[in-house]
Amino acid sequence: MAVLVIQVACADQRPPGSLTFAGSAVGREGEILRRQLASFEARHPGTTVEIRAVPDAADQQHQLYVQWLNARAAEPDVLQLDVIATPEFAAAGWILPLDRFQPAATEFFPATIEANRWKGSLYALPWFVDVGMLYWRTDLLDAAPTTFGEISSAVARAQREHGVPFGFVWSGARYEGLVTVFLEYLNGFGGRFTDAAGRVTVDSDAGIRGLTALRDTIYRDRISPPDVLAWQEEQTRFAFQSGRAVIMRNWPYAYPLLADQAASRVAGKFAVALMPHAAGGASVATLGGQQLAINAHSRHPDLAYALIEDLTSPEQMVERARMAGEYPARSALYDGSGLAALGAPPDQIRRIIEHAVPRPVTPVYSELSELLQVYLHRALTRQQDPRAALHEAADAMNAVLARSGLLTP
Amino acid sequence: MTTSPRAATADHADAHLARWLLLPALGVIAAVVGFPLCWMVWESLHLHDLRMPWLGRPFIGLANYRDAMVDPRFRTALTHTVLFVIVSVTLELVGGLVLALAMRQATRGRAALRVLILLPWAIPTAASALVWRFLFDSQAGLVNEVLVTAHLLHAPQVWLVDPVLAWIPIVAADVWKTTPFVALLLLAGLQNIDQSLYDAARIDGARPWRELVEITLPLLKPAIVVALAFRALDAFRVFDLIYVLTGGGPGTATESVSLYTFSALLQKLRFGYASALSVIVFAATFGLGLIYIRVSGGHLLSVER
């Protein structure tokens, strides 16, 4: 209680034009953030924005936010949120619906808006976009594989003929990243995570075929080393960057690192493409990325929205793309020449983002994902067959939805 | 029994004072142990899910305990933990005994030897777990390198994603780290054994093996019980080692009770359910401790003077 009183007292002493912003602020990320906040301050004389640095790791960042928001703290005013956190915080009443500010939602990629809606209201604006995509070696393959069948055939052949240790590297450790890869296989085979009523359907035939195909890359086709089951993004990138793999599934952050002549063996010898699909399915890219939302207990919601509007403006997005390589969430920006610094051709990036699908937009996503990770990993390490694993996973996830009271019977 | 009345009064006053002097310590224990414990029990009787704040925080009686009893993941984690305790503590006791006997024989540099032997124990678990992870790394790990070079393996093994083999680095790291601790406890016990017993046995022509079985082990029992109690209770709440090495995987093949409780509490933010799990674990370790004290006939409390 005493702490609360002190906090309130301090908050009242702040001038009306001061905001706090919670987000990642280390390294290059911090550099660009400080720069972008300074330019906002310059455009809004009398306003100051204080950075409240939070951990980069999504889990720890989430924990900290829950502590603050659950305690109804008035600060920070503006939060940088991972895309999967928006529905959770919205349902908890911890962030403000943005509808009354009339944001120009149609200017952003539809998937990025869909991911930030809860019960019909928009709760956050996309700041920058992350998408799962396929990196391929232009010196080892004639074209990017477009079907999962080609991954088994063409990639395996290239691996053999060129003596490359690995064919296909991906992040298969038991963590959120595994779910994002599975989602691309699930949709690629024509499956969906949930049905129209919100019930989990990962144990559909398509889901089982998708998980089996992913498992086959290790044990049948032998194009993926079993090591991938312990790998996250970085180990995957190292393998590809040192020239030991033909194709890789990863996120946009890897691009500038792979293109770096000094540190990468594949600089100038790789390109990106949309993930493959199977007959009856369509290629998709799992949507990631960071959003901006307003604390429901903020004392300056209007000013907070002005900051969000500023940070998501075309100019700021282009600058962020130029300095940090992060993909703008506005589709129109990919028309001009402003995004040349991204490396990959902007129209190609736009095509991938247009195929982006959000993870299930539900407040209990994290809990669903934790369960799914366990069952996916059991199937991939051959402790369970894919069918049994996905059935159990779907049952466990539907039980969580039932407990949450969110599932309409 | 001829205490003078004055002395008796003094004793009485001393006892009175002693009780007052104990109060601050008891207060601290109540604040840091009793209060959180009671709160945990209270939490465990509620549905309190920070990820589902719209459900409120209703009182649900023993429902969390019922859920825990039929939760296959919790039961598997319990089995893992018990097996881990049995295997690693057995290895540590045997290894510790061998080390202690060797140290007793050492005539020179005994102090230096003890410091050296205790080094693994002094390294923070998380740090040593990282080292073990590098050793067992599938791509660049020393273990694969050695085994493949020696033709014991024809291809590198991916240790940490095999449901059975993943236990090897976990148990190895625990044994490596805590055997020295057991050895020191046992060495202290060995030094309490009267040398004349061995001299007498030798005059009677006893062989070293009989000396060990007839003299050393029986007289070492109090120290063994203490070491066993410390290690078993410690191993039962194994967390950091597994968290760093496998995270409980592959799947949940190496998940311990502490790890599962952690995931329920800090990842899923299910405060009520995780509290119920914690209460169960607390009750189990508490019961285990009571049994030890009973079995050891009070040695557990008296040796640690």
What is the secondary structure topology, with strand pairs?
The complex is a heterodimer of chains A (409) and B (305).
Chain A lengths: L1 H12 L4 E6 L3 H17 L4 E6 L4 H13 L7 E5 L3 H6 L18 H5 L2 E2 L2 E2 L2 E7 L1 E5 L10 H15 L3 E4 L6 H13 L16 H15 L13 H9 L3 E6 L3 H5 L11 E4 L11 E10 L6 H11 L2 H11 L2 E2 L17 H9 L1 E2 L7 H16 L5 H19 L5
Parallel strand pairs in A: 1-2, 1-3, 8-9, 11-13
Antiparallel strand pairs in A: 3-11, 4-5, 6-11, 6-12, 7-9, 7-10
Chain B lengths: L4 H39 L19 H7 L2 H34 L4 H13 L2 H11 L6 H8 L17 H25 L3 H9 L4 H29 L3 H6 L11 H11 L3 H26 L2 H4 L3
Folded structure, characterized:
- The complex is a heterodimer of chains A (409) and B (305).
- Chain A is α/β, with parallel strands linked by helices and 409 residues long.
- Helices cover 43% and strands 15% of the residues of chain A.
- In chain A, the strands form 3 sheets. In chain A, strands 1, 2, 3, 6, 11, 12 and 13 form a 7-stranded mixed beta sheet that branches. Chain A has a 4-stranded mixed beta sheet with strand order 8-9-7-10. Chain A has a two-stranded antiparallel ribbon with strand order 4-5.
- In chain A, a hairpin with a 2-residue loop joins strand 4 and strand 5.
- By secondary structure, chain B is mostly helical.
- Chain B is flat and about 80 Å long.
- The interface between A and B is medium-sized, with 32 and 26 residues.
Write a short abstract of this structure.
The complex is a heterodimer of chains A (409) and B (305). Chain A is an alpha/beta fold and 409 residues long. Chain A has 15 helices and 13 strands.
Notable characteristics:
heterodimer, A: 409 residues, alpha/beta, D-Maltodextrin-Binding Protein, domain 2, 2 domains, 4-stranded mixed sheet, 15 helices, 43% helix, B: 305 residues, MetI-like fold, 13 helices, flat
Helix content of chain A: 40-55%
Q: What kind of assembly state do the chains in view correspond to?
A: heterodimer
The CATH architecture of chain B can be given as: Orthogonal Bundle
* Mean of pLDDT of chain B: 88
User: How many domains make up the 3D coordinates of chain A?
Assistant: 2
Low-confidence stretches of chain B: none
CATH topology of the largest domain in chain A: D-Maltodextrin-Binding Protein, domain 2
Tell the overall outline of chain B: flat
What is the fourth-level CATH superfamily of the largest domain in chain A?
Periplasmic binding protein-like II
- How many beta-strand segments of chain B? 0
Distance between the termini of chain B: 27 Å
